[in-house]
Design goal:
This protein is 32% helix and 21% strand. The chain has one domain. A five-stranded antiparallel beta sheet has the order 4-3-2-1-5. With 131 residues, the chain is of the alpha+beta class. Helix 3 crosses helix 4. The chain has five helices and five strands, in the order αααββββαβα. The protein starts with a helix and ends with a helix.
Length: 131
């Protein structure tokens, strides 16, 4: 009887959950901000399978990196290949058409970690993993 009464009372969070707020999705990691791109990079860097395109493995995966030119990523949430162009040192995501999305954050991390070691030639994730 007590339990039935509790079920009839409205839950304070139920309205928020129906609008998408406070909902936790454990299967997909959507990334939107520069900080989330940095977190996605750290997740990818510590991943056992850096080539896995499964959304539960890596939110963003590096496909190809050309120092100071562009970085090609795969966003597992969007299921899309993403090109982040570097023009005069300024990154720009061609997919989002922004300079401050998660893809740019990820690309900045790649540039900072691997860019100073390379000479502008195209490299795949296999080349970078060997470093």
């Amino acid at each position: 009887m007590e339990q039935e009464r509790n079920n009839d009372q409205p839950n304070e969070l139920s309205g928020l959950e129906s609008h998408g707020r406070y909902k936790h999705e454990n299967t997909v990691n959507k990334c939107e901000t520069l900080d989330e791109g940095t977190i996605a990079f750290m997740h990818w860097l510590n991943s056992d399978d850096k080539k896995s395109l499964a959304p539960t493995s890596n939110p963003i995966v590096l496909l190809k990196f050309v120092n100071d030119v562009h970085t090609i990523l795969y966003d597992t949430y969007l299921c899309a290949e993403i090109d982040v162009e570097i023009n005069k040192g300024i990154p720009y995501c061609k997919y989002c058409k922004e300079g401050d999305c998660a893809h740019v954050g990820f690309a900045i991390c790649i540039e900072q970690l691997y860019g100073h070691r390379r000479s502008g030639t195209g490299e795949t994730v296999e080349d970078i993993i060997e470093i």
